[in-house]
């Protein structure tokens, strides 16, 4: 039997998940020491409870997906609204270098998936599904490419398989990023006075770096901010429909982010209107937390338990590959410093799951060790915008040349 939760009850459940996660992280030292994000801690408990109910009673729960999508779009719009051109220029060489690192990782991730699938006697396309299609691409890319692989390449159950792999990645991405970055910080003794100086000098508009910080906003600023978000989401919905089936078709969240960038800089440079960054920051963090809570509430762990042994081998190998690449390549190439460690946590987040998971990973680190303005500048733009374009092109090439 299936129980459907309306918008209001879904929001209530999400709020409870966040409160439980906050309580668990506060009370359990292990979660604090390994920097597990609060939405992940509470969400996994909720998913385990739902799984137990399903196994013992046969009941399953469906939560409102429109609400989840809406908060996800709010989060990505907040990234765009926070990214003025001065910040993009500030990202500069670091942003380009990080994009190159992630591009190489896509090749590695797909090579591992395809190679193991072939060695285990599976269709190589299944290895691609357990590669960047689902792990770096997430649930949206999994659904879109699953349909293509089922209809055009005869991969039966590609959509279900993709959703299960993306679910696995979402959970793992939120679990390995914090511990990995903590290990790097401890091993290389990166918690030095420079971090304290960075904390003291962090800019007030350093969005997402410290979600616990009190944000002083007014009613007028909140209303203006809501109008900006509404404009971004409306633009995203229009462009998604307008670009469907064209060469510039992109996921809705990319249009929301891009619309935010255009709107922010148009208002700044053409109309001299200053966007209220603290309000953008507040709404963005709320969107991030609620999105992750609903995403983890919606996990169907019985789908993961039904994965075949060979596929689990591939996914576990991908987890190990992600951890090794982030620590041996991402960390070293990006400077082998505190910023590089935080970037590595973010890479684990969207390399296995999604950009919101990456932000949550980085927040868990910066809450303990101090802000990393560079990381919060680079990861959202690369993870939510540029890399989706690169990933789509690479997936197309792999699909074309695989037998």
Automatic annotation (TrEMBL):
One family name in Pfam for this protein: Glt_symporter
Subcellular location: Cell inner membrane
Segments crossing the lipid bilayer: 6-25, 40-61, 67-86, 93-119, 125-149, 161-181, 247-267, 279-299, 311-331, 376-399
InterPro entries listed in its UniProt record: GltS
Assigned keywords, A-Z: Amino-acid transport, Cell inner membrane, Cell membrane, Ion transport, Membrane, Sodium, Sodium transport, Symport, Transmembrane, Transmembrane helix, Transport
Domain of life of the native organism: Bacteria
Membrane topology: Multi-pass membrane protein
Chief location of this protein within or outside the cell: membrane
NCBIfam families: gltS
Family: Belongs to the glutamate:Na(+) symporter (ESS) (TC 2.A.27) family.
Described purpose of this protein according to its UniProt entry: Catalyzes the sodium-dependent transport of glutamate.
UniProt name for this protein: Sodium/glutamate symporter
Protein source organism: Acidovorax bellezanensis
């Amino acid at each position: 039997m299936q129980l459907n939760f309306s918008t209001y009850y879904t929001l209530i459940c999400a709020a409870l998940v966040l409160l439980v996660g906050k309580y668990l992280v506060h009370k359990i030292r292990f979660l604090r020491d390994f920097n597990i994000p609060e939405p992940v801690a509470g969400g996994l408990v909720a998913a385990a409870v739902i799984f137990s109910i399903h196994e013992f009673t046969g009941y399953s729960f469906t939560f409102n997906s429109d609400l989840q999508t809406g908060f996800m779009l709010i989060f990505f719009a907040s990234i765009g609204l926070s990214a003025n051109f001065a910040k993009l220029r500030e990202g500069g060489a670091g942003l380009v270098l990080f994009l190159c690192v992630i591009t190489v990782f896509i090749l590695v991730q797909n090579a591992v998936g395809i190679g193991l699938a072939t060695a285990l006697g599976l269709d190589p396309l299944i290895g691609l599904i357990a590669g960047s299609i689902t792990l770096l691409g997430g649930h949206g890319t999994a659904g879109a490419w699953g349909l293509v692989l089922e209809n055009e390449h005869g991969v039966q159950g590609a959509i279900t398989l993709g959703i299960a792999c993306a679910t696995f990645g979402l959970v793992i991405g939120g679990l390995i990023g914090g511990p990995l970055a903590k290990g790097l910080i401890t091993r290389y003794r990166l918690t030095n006075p420079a971090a304290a100086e960075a904390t003291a000098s962090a800019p007030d508009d350093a969005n997402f770096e410290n979600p616990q910080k009190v944000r002083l906003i007014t009613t007028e600023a909140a209303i203006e901010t809501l109008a900006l978000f509404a404009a971004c989401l409306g633009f995203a919905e229009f462009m998604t429909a307008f670009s469907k089936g064209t060469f510039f078709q992109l996921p809705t969240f990319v249009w929301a982010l891009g619309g935010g960038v255009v709107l922010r800089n148009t208002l700044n440079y053409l109309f001299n209107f200053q966007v209220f960054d603290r309000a953008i920051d507040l709404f963005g963090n709320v969107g991030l937390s609620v999105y992750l809570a609903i995403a983890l509430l919606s996990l169907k762990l019985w789908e993961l338990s039904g994965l075949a042994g060979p596929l689990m081998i591939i996914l576990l190998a991908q987890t190990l590959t992600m951890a090794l690449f982030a620590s041996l390549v991402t960390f070293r190439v990006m400077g082998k410093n505190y910023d590089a460690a935080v970037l590595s946590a973010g890479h684990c987040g969207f390399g296995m799951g999604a950009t919101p998971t990456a932000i949550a990973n980085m927040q868990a680190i910066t809450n303990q060790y101090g802000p990393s303005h560079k990381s919060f500048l680079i990861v959202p733009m690369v993870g939510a915008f540029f890399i989706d374009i690169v990933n789509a092109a690479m997936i197309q090439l792999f699909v074309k040349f695989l037998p």
